[in-house]
Amino acid sequence: MDKLSAITRRNMLLGTAGLAGALSVPPYAAAASTSAPLKGVIDTNQKFPPINPYIYGGFLEHGANIINHTMWAEVLHDRKFYYGILQVEEPKPDPANFRAAMAYIHKWTAIGSPSDISLDETNAYVGKHSPVVKLSSTPTGIAQSHVALTSGKAYTGRIVVSAEQDTEISISLVEGKNKQTVKVRASKEWNTLPFKFTAKTNTTEARFEITATGSGSFRVGVVSLMPADNIKGFRADTIALMKEMDCKILRMPGGNFISAYDWKDTIGDPDKRPPVFDPVWKALQPNDAGLDELLLMCELINCEPYWCVNTGYGEPRSGAEIVEYVNGAADTFWGAKRAANGRKEPYKVKYWNIGNEMYGHWQFGHMSREQYVIKHNLFADAMRKADPSIYIIAPGGFVDEMTTGQGIFIEGQPEVKVGSERDWAYGMFKNSKGKFDALATHAYPPENKRFDLKTGKLFDVKQSLTEWARQPAQRVATMADAWEEYKKAFPELNDGKVKVFFDEWAFSFRDSMKGTLAVAIAFHEFFKHTDFIDMAGYTMATAWLNVTPTGSTISAKGRVFQLYNQHFGSIPVGVSGNSPQPAPQYPAGGDQPKVNTGSATYPLDVMAALTKDGKTLTVAVVNPTETTQSLDLFFEGFSASAQGKAWSLIGKNLEATNVVGKKPDVVIQESSFDARSTRFQLAPAAIKIFHFPKA
Length: 695
Hints:
The chain has 695 residues and is of the alpha/beta class. The protein contains 13 helices and 35 strands. The strands form 7 sheets. Strands 1, 2, 28, 29, 30, 31, 32, 33, 34 and 35 form a 10-stranded mixed β-sheet that branches.
């Protein structure tokens, strides 16, 4: 009788505690010839550490307008006039120029002669300057085009204005031939004046105008226009969908963005926060969705905040100050400033990420490992002095990550070895012990490419759908291989106290049914390492949505997150089968784990877990092929009752996606099945989670 291959890589590789020993194999599950039915055995006697629900977390960065144009409700761009007033608006960049397209915003243009518009740098309301409009007998002023509106929706706004003399200002909303105008009066002092409109049409081409006639001049400090149903400045529609997503933890506001970010620019009166140019994404940040707003957003969507701190251009004192602002009592120095800004009670943020990818030469403020560990320790000490209860996550830079493009390439030495000078994680373990609770790691495997350990370069490969879909899981597995090596070098890691936060990961930035297969298989690999992987943050959390300026819907990738978050169990159990994964084609290292990821039910990928109460066995099956597959399932230590439920994620084809305004092409379908059956049919390119109730 042949033994079935176990799904857990650790069993095959190392026989580590809790995973040692092959699963016992009943006679009916013995491996057969290649023509034999595909078989899987679920052994509920073999239990592993529970899945931390933070595995279903997200990462959200102020990368250009990712937050500003998806979550934030402001419909006007550059509302503080960072770019001044143009004669003619700039054309949109080529969408192929990804960064430029993300950074693009609509600019203000002159109404009347551009020579009648100047910029006051002496008495600017906010930022470096405020526009000054010289008046005449004909309307003169400023305008912004391409404003997106929803028919019948109310919009509320405010304008901060002053004038040389008492002046009537016209604020107009132009929708094609329809023009609405409201009047406000400006005086010598800066005044904040409210106004409101109700949109007449669905359009992305409305025009917003601020004009006046007469003598003298008027100045505009700030202007804002938001849907009246905004929730504390956030879009009601995207907040509702993010709440529906049930995001467990959200890492923010960076990312690479964080290393040139000054959190103090983002607190207090939003109209007085200076607009700044972000040198990382080369984009304007109005600083409206600031520290308080983002933490409030987490409360609105019932999500744990995970805050990233600037260790690039930042210094330890700023780290301590932000902890005190966020978590300090109202009678502390920075806690009092928070209270003055409208929040008396501390936010009680537990999770703090000290620095982002500081091992990378692209990171603003990057320094050598030997210098950075000292900086990290200073940050950790200062921040824990402000709040000893915080949980600290440090930038990892594991050897797999450093090798495959996240490190500094050296000609002739493409592979970073454990314990070498370029092994950032090793340096953190060695020099910052006790100064962090978890190490962060990131992975963005490219599509249809592999890493060459000899040249240090990527090369093109032709992949089957199955090979393509497991690429992200392979990168999780290479990190797990690295972790085992670190445990040898630092035996104290075996006590399980130090964790890994996989707080940036993504694959195939196109939203499609095809991409959901890769996400699901990556989940399965995360579930195999619950002893040390405690969190994962998908890039970006807004990828769970398809968003336009006036609408939103849950994306295909959002649906696969919902499928597992809502329907998969929490206590992983053993899985074995009669069809092992194929042996690796490439040498171990870089993006190739020692053993290919996946269950021994090839080409299907199977993962199983009990619910917390032990009353239901959940079995997730991914079919990453374009043909229907059959699977015979057998249980050890578990007897199912007669009726079960199942949830399937299906799309009409591999490129199926969900788009605002159209019927969704990727959906979750619920069904019932005979839980005493042993044979199951899996549709092509589909994901299914079965619930077997305990008899």
